[in-house]
Structures are given as C-alpha cells and as structure tokens.
Write a structure and sequence with these properties.
By secondary structure, the protein is of the alpha/beta class. The chain folds into 2 domains: 47-165, Immunoglobulin-like; 177-393, Aminopeptidase, CATH 3.40.630.40. Helix content is 23%, strand content 28%. The protein is built from 7 helices and 19 strands. The chain has helices spanning 199-216, 233-242, 276-286, 301-306, 309-332, 368-374, 377-393, and strands spanning 9-12, 15-18, 24-26, 47-57, 61-68, 74-78, 82-88, 90-91, 105-113, 116-123, 136-138, 146-152, 160-163, 177-182, 220-223, 247-254, 265-269, 343-346, 357-364. A 6-stranded mixed sheet has the order 15-14-16-19-17-18, sandwiched between helices. A hairpin with a 7-residue loop joins strand 11 and strand 12. It is elongated and about 65 Å long. The two termini are 21 Å apart. Residues 1-45, 158-172 and 288-310 have low confidence and may be disordered.
Length: 398
C-alpha cells in the first residue's frame, strides 16, 4: 500500500482515509484490491469569483489574488501590456477590485465569455511569463475561500497571445505517470464511420502516438491496451489504480445522428450529466460492458461511507483542471470543438477511480469530413500535440 501525505484525516469507526492527488484508504476487514475501484462523484457546479486584489511583495514583485468559491481551473495569456487569466466554468462576481498603489497593475476587469471568465489585468509594463509551478492555489482557510495567487515582475515576454508558462516548454524532470486508455477494442469496434473507419482503430493509433511523445519528454506512460483487445470498463480504470497513475486519459471518437455534427469534446465524471447529449454518450459508452459483464461490483455501506465527499471532490476538481487545460490546448490548435460548453460532465464508468482524469472525444466519425481527418496521420499528430501540451501544462504538484 502506498501512503501519501495530505492535509486531512477522516475517521469512520475503524476506517481512516488520507486524501491527496492519489487517495489511499485503509479499512479494517477489507483488502487493498477491494477498494481500488471505489466510485467517486464529481461536483460540476459553476465556480464564481468572490474577490480580486493586488499587493506589493519583496524584490519589486506584484501579487494578484483571485478568490473563488471552488477550486479554480485556469489558463494564462499575455497580450501587449496585459495578463489574461481564463477561468473555466466560472461566473463573474465579487466587489470592485482592491488595487494597492505602487504595483504593476493599472486595472482589473472581468469579461464573461460563455462558461469561461476572463480576468483581464491591464499592466503598466509588460511582465515576464509566470512559471505555472510558481502559481499558488490556496485552499480555504478562516474567512478566505480558494485563492489563485500570481506573483510577477516587469520583464520581456508580452505582446503575444500564446500561453505563457515556462513549464509548458521545459522537458519533464520528474516522471509523472499517465495511463492512456484507447477506448473499445476486440469484439467492440465502437463507432463506425460511413467509409468503414472503426473507432477502436483510430483511438489506438492516437494512443500509441501519444505514449511515444509523452515518453520522449519524461513522462512514464502506460496503455490500457496496446493491440486489438477487448477490456471491461472496470479493468481499464483499475489499470490506472495499479500503476499509481497521476492522470488517466480515455480516448474515444463520437457519432451523432446528424451527419453535420463535428468537433472534439472533453468530459469529466459526474453522477448527473451536464446536458442530454452528455448523458446519451455516457449511456452508450457504459453499455460496452454489457458485451461481457453485468457491471460494477457492489460495495458495502461501510466502504461507501468511508469514501467521503472530501475525497470525491478533490479528485473531481483535479479532473476539471486537466479538462480545462485540454480544451484550451485543442482550441489553440484550431481543432473544431463540438458546439456548447468546453467541458462536459457525465457518469462514465471508465472514469470511476481515485485517479484524476478525463474522457476525450477526438471528433465525430459520423461526419464525413471529420472521418477522413481522424484516420489521417496529419490530424492524429495534431491531436497528439494538443494533448501533449495539455499534459505539460497540467499542475501535477498540487
């Protein structure tokens, strides 16, 4: 059993739970294997900004604090004389910004664009891009809720709309573990395009390319399947647990009754679907297990209680953060997105684990143009580059 340090212990009779990026439970009378597949629940409610403030720090640094009602998921860009923090699934709010004198900040505005909120910081001078590893996300404490904290200084690096994280361009030094799940396989072909393109073939090709690229920059990656093999949904998630994964990515290709529908979509786990289309997709993907099994095993009431809302929420928030990075990377690569919210939520069985993760629908095989793209090496490589960027941008060290 691998024990990781976190901030909280929760006791239930003889059960103790420690929560971190990876959760380890020790429950009297139950084996480790019996608890690796415990279900979790995502909290897909909208976040909101509670306050915005700036201050002065030593060595000429300016500090910007964005306080939010839930753990924030963000991206940063640096237009000329500005810094723009894009918060996914977040609504504007709070009082007028409290701006300290003597900082690099002239003004701060909130601009709502669909389900994203852009916090636009007008600067007196351009600033050096902020290494994502230096951005702090502080948990609620006393009268404060979640706080997203940026410290920055004047310097070069403005004038472009590219995401400004030095971490996104560095070779990975610590070997984080990523498990890549190529959906379907074997007797389950998944969706089939008009020209006969099978989903199981497309996603396995993308998964292999993604593994190669992530391995090359220092990640430790595993495939749930490396050939045309059928796997139960529970087995896929369990592989991530057994590999002690830091991130789980399940790759799929979609289909829609409307041949005009196209575009990628990113999903995280929730017991309640974010929309009707997400619910139908989850039902389709979950039905795969009916080919070979009846479903997940039932767990005792004691174990279900031991899985506290704290653990469920922690994993859900980390998954939401990655999903936001993934959607941003896809958009930046000019990959068509399915109309609607950038991140969706549904009860996907394959995402039920204690490992943060997302299900990525790479596009629609039911659309003739996108079918041709999805089976082409050029477009698959484009998808891989975007996903690699999202993994590199993801903050594994929270």
């Amino acid at each position: 059993m691998c024990l990781l340090v976190f901030y909280t212990k929760i006791w239930y009779n003889n059960a103790v739970m420690k929560v971190s990026r990876r959760t380890v439970l020790k429950v009297s009378g139950f084996s480790v294997a019996a608890i690796t597949m415990l279900p979790r629940v995502a909290f897909a409610g909208r976040n909101s900004v509670l306050s915005l403030r700036t201050g002065n720090q030593p060595n000429g640094k300016t500090r910007l604090v964005i306080e939010t009602s839930a753990r924030p998921s963000y991206d940063i860009s640096y237009p000329q004389n500005q810094m723009v923090i894009s918060l996914s699934n977040t609504a504007a709010g709070g009082e007028s910004p409290k701006l300290a004198s003597g900082t690099l900040v002239k003004n701060v505005n909130q601009i709502q664009i669909g389900d994203k909120l852009n916090v636009v910081v007008d600067l007196k001078r351009n600033i050096a891009p902020i290494d994502r590893s230096q951005v702090m996300i502080l948990s609620p404490n006393g009268d404060n809720e979640y706080r997203l904290v940026f410290d920055f200084v004047a310097g070069s690096g403005g004038g472009g709309a590219e995401t400004g994280t030095a971490a996104a361009t560095k070779t990975q030094t610590k070997k984080y573990v990523v498990v890549i799940d190529a959906g379907h396989g074997g007797k389950d072909p998944g969706c089939i395009g008009k020209d006969g393109t099978k989903e199981k073939v497309v996603v396995l090709s993308v998964a292999r390319k993604l593994k190669k690229e992530l391995d090359a920059i220092g990640f430790k990656t595993y495939l749930t399947r490396s050939d045309d093999t059928f796997l139960k949904l529970a087995d896929r998630a369990e592989i991530a647990e057994k590999r002690h994964a830091d991130l789980f990515l399940s790759l799929h290709a979609n289909a829609n009754p409307s041949r005009e529908t196209r575009g990628y979509s990113v999903y995280t786990l929730s017991e309640k679907a974010s929309d009707e289309e997400a619910q139908k997709l989850a039902e389709t993907e979950n039905a795969v297990d009916k080919i070979g099994v009846t479903g997940f095993s039932e767990f005792s009431k004691e174990i279900r209680v031991a899985l506290s809302s704290l653990q469920q929420r922690a994993v859900a928030e980390l998954s939401e953060e990655y999903a936001s990075d993934c959607a941003s990377a896809m958009d930046s690569a000019s990959i068509d997105r399915l109309p609607g919210p950038s991140i969706r939520h549904a009860p996907f069985a394959v995402l039920r684990s204690t490992v943060p993760g997302a299900l990525i629908e790479l596009g629609h095989l039911s659309n003739a143009k996108e079918e041709k793209l999805l089976k082409s090496d050029a477009h698959q490589n484009k998808l891989v580059r975007a996903i690699v960027k999202s993994v590199k941008n993801y903050n594994f060290d929270v």
